[in-house]
Amino acid sequence: MRKISEEKLALERIRLEGMREFENKYSDFSYVAGIDEAGRGPLAGPVVAAAVILPKDIFLPFLNDSKKVTEKRRDVLFEEIKQNAISYGIGIASNILIDDINILQATYAAMREAINALEKTPDILLVDAVHIPEVDIKQVGIVKGDAKSVNIAAASILAKVTRDRLMAEYDKIYPDYGFASNKGYGTAAHIAALKEIGPCDIHRKSFIGNFVSE
């Protein structure tokens, strides 16, 4: 259990209340799920989506958009979200699927998989920025949703940590690209490795054409 001062807890309650804009708006719904993804931009690895239904009265200090949280804090929140969520689901679309149907459609596929993995059927989906096709549940696309919905913020944490851990495992198999540190993004060192030794099995062929000659 984290030791947090009463002053910090009070400030966190105020901040998090500001992130319940859409949970408050749809408070009549029993199960509100947040959906988010991680990994649309990298040159390698899968795109990962998460769906999370949090209890309405939950208080998770320091919950935020995954990009605004340190790796150490993300790891703590990852466990707290899983332990406290009413339900959560993870969806993964491989680099092969990304190359086959494009990154946007693969992201939608991962999101549908995450929704289908939920043990409870949501009454409404709060989705960061997009509208997911082929889903019958009512959904609301929210620009910068991970700053306006605690459920979307929680989903962003689960998706980010899951993907980062996958990339760390891939680093053990393909150690030449620095996946443990760059997570598949196009850093200078990653691009240099691509140009020198070519792609590995988890690179997205549709993403690396500018760096690898046929």
Automatic annotation (TrEMBL):
The gene is rnhB. Keywords: Cytoplasm, Endonuclease, Hydrolase, Manganese, Metal-binding, Nuclease. The keyword Manganese applies. It comes from the Bacteria. Signal peptide: none annotated. A divalent metal cation binds at D36, E37, D128. One of its GO terms (biological process) is mismatch repair. GO terms for molecular function: manganese ion binding; RNA binding; RNA-DNA hybrid ribonuclease activity. It comes from Lachnoanaerobaculum umeaense. PROSITE patterns: RNASE_H_2. It is an enzyme of class 3 (hydrolase). The keyword Metal-binding applies. GO terms for cellular component: cytoplasm; ribonuclease H2 complex. Endonuclease that specifically degrades the RNA of RNA-DNA hybrids. This is Ribonuclease HII. HAMAP family: RNase_HII_B. Manganese or magnesium. Binds 1 divalent metal ion per monomer in the absence of substrate. May bind a second metal ion after substrate binding. Belongs to the RNase HII family. Its cofactor is Mn(2+); Mg(2+). Its EC number is 3.1.26.4. It catalyses: Endonucleolytic cleavage to 5'-phosphomonoester. CDD domains: RNase_HII_bacteria_HII_like. It is found in: Cytoplasm. Pfam families: RNase_HII.
